[in-house]
Amino acid sequence: MSYTLEGRTGTWEIVVGLEVHAQVISHSKLFSGASASYGGEPNTHVSLVDAGFPGMLPVLNQECVAQAIRTGLGLRARINLESRFDRKNYFYADLPTGYQISQFTHPIVGEGTVEIELADGTVRHIGITRLHMEQDAGKSMHDQDPARSFIDLNRAGVALMEIVSEPDIRSPEEAGAYLRKLRQILRYLGTCDGNMEEGSMRADVNVSVRKAGEPFRTRCEIKNVNSIRYVMHAIEVEATRQIEVWEEGGEVDQETRLFDPARNETRSLRSKEDAHDYRYFPDPDLLPLVVEQAWVDELERGLPELPDDKRDRFVRQYGIPRYDASVLVAEQAIADYYEEVAKGRDARLAANWVTGDLFGALNRTGRTITDSPISAQALGGMLDLVSDKTINGKIAKEVFEDMLETGDSAAAIVERKGLKQVTDTGAIDAAVADVLARNADKVEEYRGGKDRLFGFFVGQVMKAMAGKANPAMVNEALKKVL
Ligand code: ADP
Ligand code: MG
After folding, report:
1. Which of 126, 216, 372, 375 has the fewest CB atoms within 10 Å, measured from its CB?
2. Is Repeat included in the keywords of this UniProt record (predicted)?
3. pLDDT band at residue 205 using 50, 70 and 90 as cut-offs
4. pLDDT tens across 170-184, in order?
5. Domain boundary at 396, 417, 438, which?
6. 349 and 261, same domain (yes or no)
7. pLDDT at 472 over 90
8. Is the CB–ligand 1 distance for residue 102 below 6 Å?
């Protein structure tokens, strides 16, 4: 089902392409040995190269290149064995060199693709145009003093990957799914932490609208949107604005806009600059970057299993539904937890407990899987008691809640509370007889054809036995007598 917007003149389709800036995980900056870590006192992570002192020479950080290549491989993209660094010239107070070193005509990574899945199960492929490396700029601080602005260069020179998508995205939902998937891949690879709140991943959102079957129309670029939710909102309000412009007989100008989440609107920032405004040229301080296929192969062998592959393996190996598998591979730590619970056990039962009760408990307590109050071994221990029929499924819920609270093992709780399932036929038969005797009228009705009452009898017997009876045996015993 495709997403469209209705205007006065008919149905409009949204066209979106995203440019994502992802901060590379590395100890030092792209061209200097200064620390690339987040935070720190202003101007404490700054080398003379970052500060743009005359005569300083950039030296390329090999680890940043490796991270860019890993990311390219994770996006199933072409790796360009030869790429180049260019100077993108502009004047800004937090850019002391007067140019940003970036890759313009020859990026390190070419075309790739990201698979996304929508809520209704539709799978779509979003094309990646390119990934290139570039430096981040410093930060201007206007809120420290009423009269003066300050500059913090800690971020200046930190390596970024700019990941550009094709204009393949057709709805806010697809944009959200794409960003979540991209972030998931980057986190699996360990190439970017994907924390949008800290700014280590930010998106420029290109939006245009068209009538079905038309070529693309002019787009606007919404700069630096820093949450997935805002990206989705920004697309919707910008598309709506453009539809109004077109329908009133106007023209959408290609320009850069800002999204204001408080007012839920976009505002013009500047008309779109062209590449020639930056006077790009190859940086004379840096040789073309040439990498060997053998090194790329080595990096590829070192990649972890990626989310899509892991999901497909879970479906094959554990026989769980694709949807459950997608949920379980959302984070590497969740997938690891699940596999530990599932190993040698009923894997579907394990999936139900992890995605159901465990996720519910984590949500309620505001925790993540890594600080789960119930370890994978402990949950596995409880499932063992269900499988060997020490406890039934209903009692398992009670045991689980107790585990959450006390941190005790399932076995200890079953012992302490005397929750062991009753499989003694004598005791079950006695309870059955008692329940039937007390409900003679209902027995009559049941025998008269009111089959639905069977469940009532099961419930009464279970209740009489404090929930601890083996449900299959209760069913058996009831059928025999009735
Ligand atoms: P620039 O380099 O000037 O930013 P690009 O052609 O590289 O321009 O495109 C930048 C982004 O804009 C890409 O993500 C691309 O998919 C997207 N884009 C291009 N044309 C359109 C369009 N008509 N509507 C929406 N997005 C577009
Ligand atoms: Mg751009």
Report:
1. 216
2. no
3. very high
4. 999 999 999 999 999
5. 417
6. no
7. no
8. no
| 314 and 291 belong to one structural domain | no
pLDDT digits (tens, 9 = 90+) for 114-147: 999 999 989 999 999 999 999 999 999 999 999 9
Token pair listed for 101: 């070193």
C-alpha R_g of the chain: 30
Indicate if ligand 1 lies below 6 Å from the C-beta of 216: yes
The long-range contacts involving 369-373, CB below 8 angstroms and separated by at least 24 positions, are: 369/331, 369/333, 369/334, 369/337, 370/333, 372/337, 373/403, 373/404, 373/407
How many separate domains does the chain show?
3
* Pairing mode, strands 220-225 and 255-260: parallel
Which pLDDT band holds residue 154 (cuts at 50, 70, 90)? very high
Residues 412 and 473 in one domain: no
Give the burial class of 386: count Cβ atoms within 10 A of its Cβ; 0-12 exposed, 13-18 middle, 19 or more buried.
Answer: buried
> Which pLDDT does position 274 carry in this prediction?
66
> Is the shortest distance between the CB of 346 and ligand 1 below 6 Å?
no
Report the nearest-CA residue for atom 5 of ligand 1. 164
| Cα dist from 309 to 152, 175, 298, 317, 395, whole Å | 42, 22, 19, 12, 36
Q: What is the domain extent for residue 412? A: 305-417
**Contact, 69 vs 79, CB < 8 A?**
yes
**Predicted confidence (pLDDT) at residue 406 exceeds the cutoff of 70:** yes
Question: What atom of ligand 1 comes closest to residue 217's alpha carbon?
Answer: 23
Sign of CA dihedral 39, 41, 45, 47: positive
Residue 270: per-residue pLDDT: 79
Residue 441 belongs to domain with CATH number = 1.10.10.410
Please indicate, yes or no, whether residues 364 and 233 belong to a single structural domain of this protein: no
Q: Does 206 contact ligand 1 (Cβ within 6 A)?
A: yes
